[in-house]
Amino acid sequence: MSPASPRIALFIDGANLRATARTLGFDIDYKRLLSEFQNRGSLLRAFYYTAIIEDQEFTSIRPLVDWLDYNGYTVVTKSTKEYVDASGRRKVKGDMHIELAVDAMELAGHLDEMILFSGDGDFRSLVEAVQRRGVRVTVVSSIASQPPMVADELRRQADTFTDLMELRAKVVRDPSERPPRERRETRPPQFQQRVPVASQRVDVEEFNR
After folding, report:
1. Is residue 205 in a domain?
2. What CATH number did the domain enclosing 176 receive?
3. How many domains does the chain have?
4. How far apart are CA 166 and CA 160, in angstroms?
5. In a domain, 46, yes or no
6. Core-most of 12, 115, 142, 198, by most CB within 10 Å?
7. 126 within 8 A of 22, measured Cβ to Cβ
8. Residues near 119 by Cβ (< 8 Å), separated by ≥ 6?
9. Among candidates 54, 71, 87, 70, which has minimal Cα distance to 204?
10. Domain of 178, in residue numbers
11. Which pTM was predicted?
């Protein structure tokens, strides 16, 4: 990559991106996604944030985060808590907003562009703060669904909005391919484990739009 290439970083709100792709009817091929943005500039870091239920022997997200950790992503996780709501439905709480915001602000001074994969309106203030540091912000989510997966205030704040449907051909996983389930290396995955923030509790699979 030439010295003139823009310095970029990806900040992926895992639960939000998975929900958006699922709503649009396809699965993400994270190897292709990483390659796509490596071709757009000097990719300094690709963060992936997700909460994990630590007291369960197996959860569906574990094979993915293990694979990401070995294949170019910086995976940031923390433990979730389970609870039963008033209607008796089982819920899982875990919010990665603070972790993502801290990393974004720390890296902002080294970036030309931040790519935020999320439609959560809570990130509007973060986007504004990063922009004040001279960093362009691209938000990736979708308005192709009904209702839209991106909050209007976040889309308006971003310098550029990219609909995930526009990237589909470049990042979709071939349905005939199995999702990542095995690691090629023998070392244990080295996740960045964050201490849960008790006051920040949001359903992993539900998010504000």
Report:
1. no
2. 3.40.50.1010
3. 1
4. 13
5. yes
6. 12
7. no
8. 16, 20, 139, 141, 142, 148, 149, 150, 151, 154, 155, 207, 209
9. 54
10. 7-193
11. 0.79
